[in-house]
Structure prediction request, 352 residues.
Amino acid sequence: MDGYILNLFRIPYSPRLGNQREQKPVVFIQHGLFGCSDCFLLNGPENAIAYNFADAGFDVWLGNARGNIYSRKHATMTAGHPKFWKFSWHEIGAIDMPESIDYVLEQTGEPALHYVGHSQGGTVYFVMLSSRPEYNAKIKTGHCLAPAVFMGNVTEGIVTTLAPYVGTPGAGANLLSDQPFVPYNPYVQRLLDTACGGQSTFPKYCQTLFLMWAGKEQSNLNATLLPQLAETHPAGISTNQGIHYIQLKVSNKFRQYDFGAKKNKQQYRQAEPPEYPLEKITAETYLYYGLNDDSANPMDMQRLPSYLPNLRVFHEVPNPTWGHLDFIFAKQVKEEINDPVIQYCRDYEELN
Prediction:
């Protein structure tokens, strides 16, 4: 719609099932901040949710947000153009997700699909269905794993550190906005892969890298994935995405990007950015959260159910140490997350 070219990846059938000729229910899986579609594959054929869905008989599609390594092209601009990075996760939710879903449904001939989103993948689910409510009809079930929505109680280090400087419009936000943050560089990624491999030369450095992304609790994470993870992550984002999240921390509201009163009046016709009307989300929604999540804090998660008229499941992972990245990279992720999510999707298919 606005020129960004998105790459989707597909697992159309499972070799274990030999079901390539069958019409299958569709699932669309969307990554979080700093991520790309690879993160749903790295846990391998036994434990990665994309493979698990394929083996359960689903047609699996993996999304990639604008600006990451797989979606860094535009119809008229290069990634070096000053306007290329002028977007936040609002545009990903309001434009990229609807465009991706329409493409998937057109290719598969299905009227609707199942949606799974981790972190920012949950954020954009709420943006899409609240700002473009006609897409509720295209979602069979929506599964949000640790969605970053309300953020007033977030304790994640980068967010809390930068909040005084970029959490409200001003010089700090203006200085950092509209540019790539941690841009993907293949030479740097190769260095990280080498440094953090099985015989790591810099174990403390690699541990610090993981700590920055995963949070303080790492006991559940499959640390053997670090070399592969370092090959493509961080996959690249716009600084505006991070600034937008930090604004949510400061305002304690789930609302659109704050440009400052003057530009807000031009953009929104009001001085404050509008809140997303979550009550318009009528699709079957399933929420999953961890008790030790620095980014999707349990207290913030507790605010969500009252806004959602069709919330079917509000699932607290029983492991008290479960953190933000455990939803995709934990050693126990298949049993704790993947199997229940897939079963809910199967139940829907059996009843409909």
